[in-house]
């Protein structure tokens, strides 16, 4: 049995009680086997001396487009629909098998380097197989799927799909990849957004996702122009329409969800729909400020995501946590969305969104060993037993402080070098 002992770290468990202790963590195979102040009698295959370092659960990012990593810098000064039409869709249409692979590998390298160990990803129409290959080889934990687009005059011909073919290709990918790599890889249906999907496609997704027991990952109510398009065509607001079709269920994950009316909030709450907040993207595309505190207070599971790299961000969860806090503080005052709350969103919150709270999101015995070790030695702080670790991690740590990352009990980054990815992308 392979075992790793992480010794002497400040362990931020992110468990229900938010316990923090200085001590040891033993990993056996891919799970956390023991926690304690000193596990001296253990003879592990590998010992990591983590004295003075901070051990956290790996971040769980619940909205990413790995295929867009190579498009960074193409999002200037446009709002959602124009940006998709002018910048993103033509580039997605031009993607090749190789370019999707490299785009995914680059994105995964950045994600791991900034402490993210699980992602919910949405690919483009073609070459999703390449992204799954990159996910498999890199070692990251991922739920991914091909994007589905069978509707909309604005969509380039090269991305327009036939409804049956879109559903069939999704099922083929699902059957190949769902549960692959010892369960580290899963499939989710990804109808892009209502604007690009026929009702027939969405009904197909509703039935197939129930049949296979998988998640549905889409964008909803990100932008006022998008909402107008949905209302003009379907005669209803976005989430009301998804509910009308029967898609508003606990396996539905909505990215953004900024412009929700009272009925939509009620539907999300009552049906157990999950939400992903993407603050960096919402700022860059001037989409708006989501009502995150209100959603959290009403018991909705809300995770955090960077969205695609062109939304002027670098897939960095440290940045997304800070932006989440700043955006709400400026509106509602300093006590709203404190450091503890945003750190929970980045860990257990994401795990809840994915329905994986029994396996990831916190450091507890029996959970999968998805961990990040931060080296905060350079911090110039007055030594104190009352260090506010949540505040330090959220407001002062950066991705450059991530030293070691484990996913599924495997060391994927060590000494600030991503071992599983860099060798493949340095040409
Ligand atoms: N809505 C539909 N497609 C997209 C996308 O690629 N990115 C964002 N941010 N919103 C979308
Ligand atoms: Fe997105």
TrEMBL record:
One of its GO terms (molecular function) is S-adenosylhomocysteine deaminase activity. Substrate binds at residues 92, 222, 307. Binds 1 zinc ion per subunit. Residues 54-412 form the Amidohydrolase-related domain. InterPro entries: Amidohydro-rel, Deaminase_MtaD/DadD, Metal-dep_hydrolase_composite, Metal_Hydrolase, MTA/SAH_deaminase. Its cofactor is Zn(2+). Signal peptide: none annotated. Keywords: Hydrolase, Metal-binding, Zinc. The keyword Endoplasmic reticulum does not apply. PANTHER family: AMIDOHYDROLASE-RELATED DOMAIN-CONTAINING PROTEIN (PTHR43794:SF11), AMINOHYDROLASE SSNA-RELATED (PTHR43794). Belongs to the metallo-dependent hydrolases superfamily. MTA/SAH deaminase family. Catalyzes the deamination of 5-methylthioadenosine and S-adenosyl-L-homocysteine into 5-methylthioinosine and S-inosyl-L-homocysteine, respectively. Is also able to deaminate adenosine. This is 5-methylthioadenosine/S-adenosylhomocysteine deaminase. It comes from Paenibacillus arenilitoris.
